[in-house]
TrEMBL record:
This is L domain-like protein. Keywords: Leucine-rich repeat, Membrane, Repeat. The lineage of its organism: Eukaryota, Viridiplantae, Chlorophyta, Pyramimonadophyceae, Pyramimonadales. It is a single-pass membrane protein. Gene3D superfamilies: Ribonuclease Inhibitor. GO terms for cellular component: axoneme; membrane. Residues 300-337 have a biased composition (Low complexity). It is found in: Cytoplasm, Cytoskeleton, Cilium axoneme; Membrane. Residues 291-337 are annotated as: Disordered. The keyword Repeat applies. Pfam families: LRR_1 (PF00560), LRR_8 (PF13855). It comes from the Eukaryota.
């Protein structure tokens, strides 16, 4: 037997049989979307011809077996939407034929292994919605075939590596809802194939790099819910494909550039809850919310801060059923509360500056 394709999306229960490890000619295993329990058998590490392993959307527990690092023919591995624990095995860095790896929505801990930087064929990597800690490895900048990377909704710290600017095939980059610090690297302006960039809900500081104006394929840019300062770059007016731009809940100042009025594809732009944006909204820009800025010469909160968040926050493009799709992301109520409090305090002072 070389394939086990048609057992997915049933109501199978029980465990994954260890005996499957004897099917050494197997290249394709599809047990996804069942109600399987127990652990991922270590015996699956004997399936050295395996190219596609789909075990996602079950109730599997235990760790990701280190033995899976023996499957050097593996191209696609989907273990997402289970209840797996433990760390991401460093041995997975041996799977140099891997193109798609999805471990999202488990309970994995530990760091993102630097060894993953050796997976030169990798196109889609989803490690989001776990409890990973540590930094984003600089070695990921060596994955030059990467098109989609999702590290969101973990507890990652440190800075966004400048090396990610080497990923010139990148189309979607999610770093949302971590504890990243430092600046938005200007090197990201080299990723001219990127259509979606989402580092929202971190603690990023510094200015919005002018180099982002070179991302002419960009459609969705979410820089909201950070601590960015400075002005909105006029260079963003070069992003003619832009549909959704979120800059809310930062500390941006100055005026909204008139150049943004040239972005005729824009559907939603949210610049609310900054501390000193002044002036008027450029013509032809459809704005989902300006509450909390000095653009309307009013401060959003007259009493205690609420947790309702900015009005009109656009949602991200909906997820698909693809194993590599990522869920929508939005700032948490607690983060919104903190930033709203800051916005109210800062807006009072900013009004005087904007009207002077």
């Amino acid at each position: 037997m070389t394939t086990l394709r048609y057992l997915n999306s049933n109501s199978l229960t029980g465990t994954v049989p260890t005996e499957l490890g004897e099917l050494t000619a197997m290249t394709y295993m599809n047990l996804q979307s069942n109600s399987l329990t127990g652990t991922v058998p270590t015996e699956l590490g004997e399936l050295t011809a395996m190219q596609n392993m789909n075990l996602y959307t079950n109730s599997l527990t235990g760790t990701v077996p280190t033995e899976l690092g023996e499957l050097t023919a593996m191209q696609n591995m989907y273990l997402n939407f289970n209840s797996l624990t433990g760390t991401v095995p460093t041995e997975l860095g041996e799977l140099t034929a891997m193109q798609n790896m999805d471990l999202n929505s488990n309970s994995l801990t530990g760091t993102v292994p630097t060894e993953l930087g050796e997976l030169a064929a990798m196109q889609n990597m989803n490690l989001n919605s776990n409890s990973l800690t540590g930094t984003v490895p600089t070695e990921l900048g060596e994955l030059t075939a990467m098109q989609h990377m999702d590290l969101s909704s973990n507890s990652l710290t440190g800075t966004v590596p400048t090396e990610l600017g080497e990923l010139t095939a990148m189309q979607h980059m999610y770093l949302t809802s971590n504890s990243l610090t430092g600046t938005v690297p200007r090197e990201l302006g080299e990723l001219t194939a990127m259509t979606l960039m989402d580092p929202n809900s971190n603690s990023l500081t510094g200015t919005v790099p002018t180099e982002l104006g070179e991302l002419t394929a960009m459609q969705h840019m979410y820089l909201n819910s950070n601590s960015l300062t400075g002005t909105v770059p006029t260079e963003l007016g070069e992003l003619t494909a832009m549909q959704n731009m979120n800059l809310y809940l930062n500390s941006l100042t100055g005026t909204v550039p008139t150049e943004l009025g040239e972005l005729t594809a824009m559907q939603n732009m949210d610049v609310s809850y900054n501390n000193g944006l002044c002036g008027t909204i450029p013509e032809n820009v459809e704005v989902s919310s300006t509450a909390g800025t000095s653009l309307n010469q009013d401060c959003p909160i007259t009493g205690e801060p609420t947790t309702s968040g900015p009005t009109g926050i656009p949602t991200m493009p909906p997820s698909t059923s693809s194993p590599t799709a990522s869920p929508s992301h939005s700032p948490t109520a607690s983060a919104t509360t903190i930033n709203q409090t800051n916005a109210y305090q800062q807006c009072q002072a900013a009004k005087a500056t904007c009207t002077s």
